Amino acid sequence: RSASNERAGRRSRPAERAGRAPAPRLAAATPPPAFARLGQAAATFSAGAAPTSRATRRSAREDGRRDASTAGSPLTRTVVRVLEVVPTRLRIALAALVGLGLLLGAATVVQTVRRRRLERQRRRLIADVGVLQSALLPEIPEHIGGARVTAAYRPAEGLAAGGDFYDAFELPGGRTAVLVGDISGHGRDVVPLTALARYNLRAYLEAGLTPRATLHVAANVLAPHIGDRQVTIAAAIFDPGMGRLTYACAGHGPPLLLGTDATPVTACSSPPIGAGAPTGRRQTTIALAPGATACFHTDGLDEVPVASGRLGREGVAEELRAVGPEGDSAELLARIVRRSEHQPDDMAACIITALPGGADRWCLRLEELEVDAETLNSGWAERFLLACGVGRPHLGTALLEAREIVARDGTAVIEVRVGEALAEVRVAAPPAVMLPIERRPAGSSAAAEAG
């Protein structure tokens, strides 16, 4: 039966195909556009969210490195290949170190630029300070009275004005006055004190006081203004008509001399102004014939450091001899600067040379000392007389006379005249310090008042 049914089915299928048309198929339903876009988004999300294997990610990284290693310059490819073998943590540490190096380099550049700017400002300020200090120092003509005078000043290293000063001017009778001084300390507070000291000293010399009296009066005037500072001064007057140089020092060394065999006595020298002791007690007069030279300078020249220590007074004298009578103070300072290692203190020098035509007949050396009871009791007066070459018989007589005058007047002046013969001693009462006043005729004063 099954076989007959199968045969019957085969016979009927062609007939069906031939007799009727096949049944129409149903068309697929077309979704709306909104649903289509939603489906596409879901498919994209499913594709992106599909997890990738570790091997796939490693392969992608290797492909990226390979592309980077094959692109760019040879240096870039070399760096990339090196970094491929560096662990990630070490790579991060190296990047941090590189960043830190860049920051330090930038900071170094900024500091270098700032340091150079500050150095330029420092140099300008030092130049301004030097100009300010030089403005307080007068311009010295080459010839003053019967002498050739040169003066020079050099500030110390560093940003601070110094207290060194000098002055030279003409006095009546063709005489030449010289001032050299030093106020302790540096800075702007010293500048007005420098001007105060110089103008006061100049006024006293122009008024007719001797160098010793000038220092004595200046000590009383300047002491209330300088506070705890000290002032060293050398005041001198050169008289070409007599061929002699009279000077007094307060805390200052005697002048260096060329062309003369005079040897000043430094025993019982006066202390600086402000040292708490009376000053202006010593005065020396020496011969300064035409062509002879005297150099007054501050301690900044003596104290410059050299290879063997300090230059010292002998070193300055050596440089003065190298400069010679025809040299000037600026050349002397320049030689000392070249010889020294640095200049910790400011320097001032004034050289005076007697011009031809002056007198050369002066052959004495006068040494003066004003003494009081304390000076006599301490033995200072005796040391002074011995240093001047006074013998014992004359020494005792001079001290006895000095004690009598001191008991009566408070102080006495011992004057020793040293010449070719034995030293001669004179003791007298101190002269009254009086500033000369210009006197007018009686009629002129009355007429002035009436007018």
TrEMBL record:
The keyword Transmembrane helix applies. Residues 147-354 form the PPM-type phosphatase domain. The chain crosses the membrane at residues 92-113. Keywords: Hydrolase, Membrane, Transmembrane, Transmembrane helix. Residues 20-54 have a biased composition (Low complexity). InterPro entries: Bact_Sigma-Reg, PPM-type-like_dom_sf, PPM-type_phosphatase-like_dom. It holds the Pfam family SpoIIE. It comes from the Bacteria. SMART domains: PP2C_SIG. Residues 1-72 are annotated as: Disordered. Residues 7-19, 59-68 have a biased composition (Basic and acidic residues). GO terms for molecular function: phosphatase activity. The keyword Transmembrane applies. This is Serine phosphatase RsbU, regulator of sigma subunit. It comes from uncultured Solirubrobacteraceae bacterium. The lineage of its organism: Bacteria, Bacillati, Actinomycetota, Thermoleophilia, Solirubrobacterales.
